[in-house]
Amino acid sequence: MHYKKLAVAAASKRTRTVLPTRLSTTTTCSLRRCLSTRGITASSNSSTTDLSAFAKSTTRRAPYSASNSASNPRATPSRDPRPYPPLVVEPRKKNRPSKYKIPDSVSKTVSRELYRYKYLYHEYSLYAPNRAFQTWKDRGTLRHTKVPDHFFGDRIAIKLAPYQIDGARFLLASPAPKEKQNPPAPAKPEHGAMRSHVQIVAAPTADTPGACLLVHYDNRRYVFGHLSEGTQRLFTEHKIPAAKLSHIFLSGKTDWATTGGLLGMILTVADVIISAKAAVEEENKLRRQKNKPEITHGGPQRIEIHGSKNLEHMLAAARRFVFRKGFPLDAHELRADPRAGNPENSKPDYEDENLKVWKIPLIATGMESRSPSSSTGSQNPRKRKLNSSEEPETMETAVEGEAVDGVDDVPAGVENDEEKTQLLMQTIIKHMFDSDWKPDALVEQSLHKVKLPAKIFVRDDEGKITVYKGPLPGRDANVPDIKVLVREPWPGALIHRLPPTDPSFDSTCYVVKNHARRGKFQPANALKYGLPKWTFSKLAKGESVTAEDGTVVTPDMVLDPPIPGHGFALIDVRYEYLLDSLLERPEWENKEIMENIDAFYWILSPEVKDDSRLKDFMAKHNSFKHIVLGQGMSPNVISFAGASGKAIMMHRMDPDRFSIPNHDNKEEALPAGLASVAELGKPGQRLLLSPSVEFQPKFANALMDTIRPITELTSTHAKAFNLALEAQQKVSDPAFAARVAESEHDIPNREAEIVTLGTGSALPSKYRNVSATLIRVPGYGSYLFDCGENTLGQLRRVYGYAETDAILRDLRAIYISHLHADHHLGVPSVLAQRAAANAAKPLTIISTPKYIGFLHEYKDVEPLDWANIKFLTLIGTGRKPTDDPNGPPSADLGPANNHFNMLPGTVCALQPAAARNADVLEFQTGLAAIDACFVDHCLGATAAVFTWPSGLKISFSGDCRPSDAFAHIGKGSHLLIHECTFDDELIGEARAKKHSTASEALDVGRKMGARRVLLTHFSQRYPKMQAPVLDELEGNEEKKGLGGDRTVVLYAFDYMKIKLGEFKMAERFLPALRELYGELENEEDEDGGEIKE
């Protein structure tokens, strides 16, 4: 919204005011520029400006009053030479609440100058949010006032009422509409936006492994390429809004390298759209009460995802942990060649009001021998029957007493062919994102038909609903034939096992083109036929008009020739076996498809970059600009400058605990063959498609200046830096090291290293990635506690590619605490890279049955070295930690032998039972014991305690409210890693969302007697640091753990590496960190972090 004039009125309580005369130098300069735009000159050597000319050009809306002038000292002739009448504002009426809201759009520049100079007279286009006004409200310096209804006259009243700030009142108003006939509006195209461009969002780096393009239109956004792990965080880093994202076109084959960030992006976009719809609905409720017209949500109403075969299978496998309502999602798999029957077919495979898309499948040749199914003799999935007598592979982790019934769980009416399987997948996906299911709905059915586990209710004699406690179907005899009430399960949960599929190696590519736009309307041509001007708009819209002489004037008679739509092609050919199919595609010779294509974006890999066929193809089609985005060719630049800048500062302060993120700004050279026909693409570069075609390299993201954070630290944050230097001097004292070693002589494995790869919650942010902690215990191996999205990328930033592969080969176990997506979406990429690194040791995944079930279904999409992966399933026992192991459980489990009861406060057992043997467990994982319990967070959330044969004991909380059971099983821990999502002031929110505060986490450590405590998993509302926690940590000098050693508490940061024996050294840096992050928080408040287009 644009407001053309800023008028300011200042008043006291007793005085009806006039415009003030005091103008600062800055304001005068701004005013002088404003006057010059109106053809009015001002003296350049005077601090005041003659406003008489300006007054004549400005219509005043209130009569001049001499009494007002006399009563206001600022309006005396000696101080107020203005000859024009003042604005009059009625005094504020008491006890009358304002109906006006703070404006949606207020210029940041105007806000700052208003607050600084008290008044301002200038012309602006106001664009930025109202953070300054909110600050004034928080400080109590801003109060609403009432505008008289007659004040605006024939002006257009805007939503901003005058605001009173320390006695000064400010008024924003828009000019009156001019009563003159405007020329006809430019012709709107029937198809195609007036302005659109393609932007490179990501090129392959260590923590953004995929290449991604964003196609921008005013009304919506489209993503093409890979949505790999880290892409969502990259959108946040570069302030690219995802609210208008409506279509995702995934290129290449369906695997985690292509889709690893898809689920996280979907959840984020879904939450944004659902929140926007809810806000619109709330507004419409108020409008209905006031008989006002309702408004509609202007953003995307649904999201559509296009990709290769197995896309639907991958999405449906996530049904165990993805559930949203009111967010329609459609998945479109490319299962057949659109031009197989007719190579000349030029009909787009997708089309909307903005663009046309042709899907180009590259068929893998000679890949039958690579498919794992070919070696096991499984049949083609196109011929596999859902009710086949062939028994599916039984999960190794099946719980004792749990039925393994995957292929029979198909809705009635679904037949046993590929089309019906696809229908089943689409039904599951619909229920995942747009279900009308209600968790509290009860349905009546016969007791014999109830599927366990289920909570069963009956009505008593008085009609009240009570829990059924009688015999259960399938478990007990003499089950009565009665009607019962059962809480209706979520439909997706009824499918225990998806129909199997095989990996697909085909790659999907795209040709994308804007629609042609109508030519420019020529009024002179219309006037030649004697047409009145009111017919121009019809002609511009494509309608024909009949002239007075009977001539039918068609649009083509008055419009310039159509403007053709331009576009680009995206070719994903990362494997050699795809090149033959690429060269044989008929689309390259189809003039209608390839006409006005300006660029080819190539997603390549080292496997194909030297292939001469690729160079020959580019040389043959040299009329296009060829842009390469390839692993091993794009430089490994820093992708997340915000987090890396803080890490560099921390490295300068404490080099032993923090390292500079691994990166290389040296641009890799394209192979000699490609360099002559192509160029390397850089993130940020744009290709303007409309209204003209222009390559815009000027928008490329600048390389991060890694020296700047150090300069900023030593200058702007000199106090924090000096405190850090003092800490460095303290910890380098040999006497200090000796005292630490003596106090920790009974702590085993003091060289064990804790690496906090992700310390944020919910979703990746600019400064913190989601949950992941690596434990490296010399002599035993490495262990991952939770593995959120982009854990592999974080590892590569800390250690580099080669050492990361060595760590993965040494990885013994991955523990997933619960099913929330921010705790496990990084597992498939870790497993895939571990297989690529030729790991020989078996890897054990420890979690609950639902997560392990997801991995079993996903392995059909992508081979993950399955033979080298073992599982330990955490199942419920109903026993509390204090129960007698040989006695009955004290917890009310409901139906006997129900392993699905995961009650908080009860302990878990390992499945298979053989793993409960210490020797077997040590051989498989290197651990002496794994103790776990269910905690209060989400269904099946666990906390675990890991004990090594050396006696080292580490407890990990996952996400939870404080748990006495966890404190009990973790008694005597040498290290507690506990979540600390909220500070103590938000205890209510912590209880509502089932998280812990700082004090609660420390209290769990006190009950355990933990020697060391590491706090992590912070709410993303704290963008850099949770300052109150540091205050708490510095007050821990007197807290004692077991063994008489003082408990040391630290705060986790991304990229931090700390050995168990270094906690007391790191503790010395807390004052410096507190000072640094307190200053950084202040900067964040001032600078803001708005996402702009």
TrEMBL record:
User: Biased composition, Low complexity: where in the chain?
Assistant: 60-76
Q: What is this protein called?
A: ribonuclease Z
Q: State the EC number(s).
A: 3.1.26.11
Q: Which cofactor does it need?
A: Zn(2+)
GO molecular function list: 3'-tRNA processing endoribonuclease activity; metal ion binding
Question: Per the record, which residues fall in region Disordered?
Answer: 57-102, 366-399
Q: Which organism is it from?
A: Pseudoneurospora amorphoporcata
Member of which family? Belongs to the RNase Z family.
